[in-house]
Write a structure and sequence with these properties.
Radius of gyration: 19 Å
Strand content: 15-25%
Shape: globular
Distance between the termini: 41 Å
Helix content: 25-40%
Order of helices and strands: HEHEHEHEHEEHEEEEHEHHE
Length: 255
């Protein structure tokens, strides 16, 4: 992937695991050492331990922080800047009004604007326990491989469930975030980077979503948003979702 990025003049950012135990640290260091030999631009980490490991490993390129740090105030941004962080991802719980009152300092600031949002990460895997026969005496048969699962609540919403390579269960919001109609607001607030969470998308969907946001960003910068039908564009993107879109907390907050 790093070589592809280099050949196509695209920056590649490698995301470290959001959770790792002490006995997994050796593997993380090995990954970082391997990435030193590549053209990866930066490492993305969602916890303080990850930042310390990246520093200890002698990584001399960009360091970005993920939403796992739940950056929610100026003091946290300032602390991360002092640690040499190049790009800070803001908490998903922010409203536009709260972002407007932040002091970004010298670091770049990123907001997630589109995609399937994780709601929970758990060491307990429902799929393995119920279908995989996992217990203290028996290993899991890994029924999650090559199949899709979801948990349905009393409102009949299906929450997508995925299991990572470490058998940790990730539960996602059934409604995907879409802020394409509000790209100009992020730009006016001084947000440097807009992130699309495309890990759960097929390549062709990633292409369409990215192309759409690129078109809106360019129009917003040139002050030509009146040439784009944002509602029509959002409807087109919504065809790739199962439960529709949400605006997250950008307008209503967490209360």
């Amino acid at each position: 992937i790093a070589n592809w990025g280099r050949d196509h003049r695209r920056d590649i950012v490698f995301a470290l695991p959001s959770i790792f135990h002490p006995h997994e640290s050796k593997a993380i260091y090995q990954i970082i050492d391997k990435l030193k030999e590549s053209s990866v631009k930066a490492l993305l980490t969602g916890n303080i331990g990850g930042i310390m490991m990246v520093e200890k490993a002698g990584w001399d390129r960009g360091i970005y922080t993920d939403v796992g740090l739940n950056v929610f105030n100026d003091l946290t941004i300032d602390f991360l800047q002092q640690k040499g962080i190049d790009l800070v991802t803001l908490s998903l719980e922010f409203t536009f009004a709260q972002i407007e009152n932040l002091n970004f300092g010298t670091s770049g600031v990123e907001c997630i604007v589109h995609g399937a949002l994780p709601m929970m990460v758990s060491e307990y895997c429902v799929i393995g326990s119920v279908l995989g026969g996992r217990c203290r005496e028996k290993a899991c048969s890994k029924p999650c491989r090559g199949r899709s699962f979801s948990l349905k609540d009393r409102m009949n919403f299906a929450f997508p469930v995925e299991v990572d390579r470490f058998c940790r269960m990730h539960i996602y919001n059934p409604k995907e975030l879409c802020m394409i109609a509000h790209v100009d607001t992020f730009i006016q607030l001084g947000v440097n980077s807009l992130r699309i969470e495309g890990k759960r998308y097929r390549p062709e969907v990633v292409h369409q979503v990215t192309k759409s946001y690129r078109q809106v960003i360019d129009a917003a910068i040139k002050n030509r948003l009146d040439t784009i039908n944002l509602k029509e564009m959002e409807i087109s993107l919504e065809k790739h979702t199962q439960a529709g879109f949400t605006k997250g907390h950008y307008f209503r907050g967490i209360i």
